[in-house]
Amino acid sequence: MDGEEFRHWSRRAADWGADYRAGLRDRPVRAQTAPGEIAARIAASPPEEPEAMEAIFQSFEADILPGMTHWQHPRFFAYFPANAAPVSVVAEYLVSAMAAQCMLWQTSPAATELEGRVTDWFRQAIGLPAEFSGTLQDTASSATLAAVLTLRERALGWRGNSKGLSGQPRLRVYCSGEVHTSIDRAVWFAGLGADNLVRIPIEGPGRAMNPQALQAAITADREAGYLPAGIIACVGGTGCGGRDDIRAVAEIAAREDLYLHVDAAWAGSAMICPEFRELWDGVEGADSIVINPHKWLGAQFDCTVQFLRDPSQQVRALAIRPEYLKTSGQDEITNYSEWSVVLGRRFRALKLWFLMRAHGLTGLREMIRNHVAWSVELAQKLGGEPDFEIITEPMLSLFTFRYSPAHLSGDEEAIAAANRALLEAINADGRIYLTQTLVDGRFVLRFQAGQFETTRDDVMLAFDVITGLARKAG
Ligand SMILES: Cc1ncc(COP(=O)(O)O)c(C=O)c1O
Prior knowledge:
About 45% of the residues lie in helices and about 15% in strands. It contains 15 helices and 13 strands. The strands form 3 sheets. Strands 1-9-8-7-6-2-3 form a 7-stranded mixed sheet, with helices on both faces. A 4-stranded antiparallel sheet has the order 10-11-13-12. Helix 6 crosses helix 8. The protein is globular. The mean pLDDT is about 95. Pyridoxal-5'-phosphate binds near residues 139, 180, 237, 263 and 304.
């Protein structure tokens, strides 16, 4: 591809992107293809000869697009969002054109220096104290892994990396059952063992770890010869938005000298609105906090911010300085790859910078407040229907519910089967997209609003789709 062709196809791609986003409401949200259907359309072996771009582009539209689930669809109400404001997509075009690998300060000083600035903007926007330093990670999963490796090394007197875990005391980490599975995997990958991730019972509508039970588990573990190492708290658990009492947990962490990592991957973006900050009251007591602007702030995937009270601990756990990565004469600069599990780094700061400048905090707050208000309105409307139950009340823009008509009353298996069938009918219908979870063993449907272009009408259409399809099935 020569320069002129590159210009032509870049423009085609940009035009395509704008048309795609404008036409999303006319597409089914979830891909409607059967397993293997897309693979069957793709040649089984690679082409020996070059193909024309026109043909490649056409097969993208004909063969690939039908198998896409449209995450930017305004009626994507499944999982958590991965909302990408158009302006962050524009920034990504630029990042993609430069294609820089920003692992060290000197491999692109602007990427490092903008990362420092823009994470500090975000820190101010969510009201965290100035003692926190931010860095951009690819995902919350790898930020959490970095935190767990740090808490492991800290507890082992920084000997785990050199000596290995055999012969070391058995470390313990504490969390509730509401945390995302990235916590389990971080504990596995850090070599601590799933059996040493201690689940603390939950209480109250927030489904928070019971602080007395947490304290009792730590005390009992010390008496039994284990070495408590850290606590992982959540604000906005994935299933139904569980949130720990961060102040109470932080007090225990401080008293017991344990590392505290807070997973606010989804809910953290809402902290740009001061009125929601009570949900993570006490967060300044954390050592590490993870938030995904790629979930709800509008930063195109991927873009995770990790805030650290003392980054030198994470650097001590993760940094390695072979000769080929040294930056001669520049000892005082920051190399953010030393803050992460992976070495290579995309230039993620640019899209956060574009996003925050183009929308301002005012625009971003309005988006989040609208999502919360519309979800609350939908939950109230659905909860007012005689054949629907709200199972967990809205936590920000997430709530869970189920269909439970009078004729199925008391028959839990039949209610679960009806809700499984309803979910499938909703997603096959295509106007909206929902997913499910279990709440205290009950199969329930989740609703969250978080797409950048979602309107109140989109949310209200969900009411018609859900109730209409439920009653049609009976
Ligand atoms: C609460 C929570 N934490 C962590 C994650 C993992 O996020 P990521 O995909 O960025 O690793 C998720 C994903 O949905 C989540 O909901």
